[in-house]
């Protein structure tokens, strides 16, 4: 279980302190799917990066299965069981897709396993295994490859930052199926940041973030009717 207590984060810009998140507290239970949504610029992605250790909170604590991971590095949090998929995945010139998947798995993966992973995220495997993870891949291709690196092994908690961004409707439907499978097995917790109605409806609970604060958090059936077009949109097609 993930437990977050009184998390705050601020940055300094032009000599002035700007608060990005204020007193954020929530939990993600074992096997639960929590979807974080809200207006753009509200702090959703910042929460995800704080969970993974990409940013360091100014105040507050983060616990995973009762262990205080607040001071752990990204590598240590990954070893503890957190998987993370960026909204805009990084690129690695000179590294092949197959090598990236093997690094994520922690062992050299055979070809058929890599192909299976790529197929799960809507890519024609044979065409991608030996391609470099660089600028020759589109944003949508990069997003799907990175999601495959999270699916390659079991985690206590999987964090996906707007997994629907930059992919076509067919691939989006495949990803939703994968999330449904993970959720149904109840072996991993899911924290998804999304504006998409189909993903939001899958959640056990919804957390609405606005202006760096938790506006509301509660069961999906209670909060879904309150969501507006500003915080939620229907699945779209964005070909890349």
UniProtKB/TrEMBL annotation:
<dbReference type="InterPro" id="IPR051120">
    <property type="entry name" value="ABC_AA/LPS_Transport"/>
</dbReference>
<dbReference type="GO" id="GO:0005524">
    <property type="term" value="F:ATP binding"/>
</dbReference>
<keyword id="KW-0067">ATP-binding</keyword>
<dbReference type="InterPro" id="IPR017871">
    <property type="entry name" value="ABC_transporter-like_CS"/>
</dbReference>
<dbReference type="InterPro" id="IPR027417">
    <property type="entry name" value="P-loop_NTPase"/>
</dbReference>
<protein>
    <submittedName>
        <fullName>ATP-binding cassette domain-containing protein</fullName>
    </submittedName>
</protein>
<dbReference type="InterPro" id="IPR003593">
    <property type="entry name" value="AAA+_ATPase"/>
</dbReference>
<dbReference type="Pfam" id="PF00005">
    <property type="entry name" value="ABC_tran"/>
</dbReference>
<dbReference type="InterPro" id="IPR003439">
    <property type="entry name" value="ABC_transporter-like_ATP-bd"/>
</dbReference>
<keyword id="KW-0813">Transport</keyword>
<feature type="domain" description="ABC transporter">
    <location>
        <begin position="2"/>
        <end position="236"/>
    </location>
</feature>
<keyword id="KW-0547">Nucleotide-binding</keyword>
């Amino acid at each position: 279980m993930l437990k977050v207590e009184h998390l705050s984060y601020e940055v300094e810009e032009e000599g002035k302190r700007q608060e990005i998140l204020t007193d954020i507290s929530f939990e993600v239970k074992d096997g639960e799917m929590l979807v974080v949504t809200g207006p753009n610029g509200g702090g959703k992605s910042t929460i995800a990066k704080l969970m993974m250790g990409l940013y360091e909170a100014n105040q507050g604590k983060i616990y995973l299965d009762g262990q205080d991971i607040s001071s752990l590095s990204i590598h240590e949090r990954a070893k503890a069981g957190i998987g993370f998929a960026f909204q805009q995945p990084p690129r690695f010139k000179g590294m092949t897709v197959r090598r990236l998947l093997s690094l994520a798995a922690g062992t050299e993966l055979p070809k058929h396993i890599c192909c299976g992973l790529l197929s799960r995220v809507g890519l024609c495997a044979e065409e991608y295994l030996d391609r470099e993870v660089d600028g020759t891949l589109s944003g949508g291709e990069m997003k799907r490859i990175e999601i495959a690196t999270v699916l390659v092994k079991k985690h206590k908690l999987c964090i996906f930052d707007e997994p629907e961004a930059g992919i076509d409707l067919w691939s989006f439907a495949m990803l939703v199926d994968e999330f449904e499978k993970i959720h149904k097995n109840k072996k991993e917790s899911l924290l998804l940041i999304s504006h998409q109605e189909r993903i939001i409806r899958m959640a056990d609970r919804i957390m609405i973030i606005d202006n760096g604060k938790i506006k509301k958090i509660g069961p999906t059936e209670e909060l879904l009717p309150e969501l507006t077009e500003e915080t939620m949109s229907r699945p779209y097609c964005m070909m890349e």
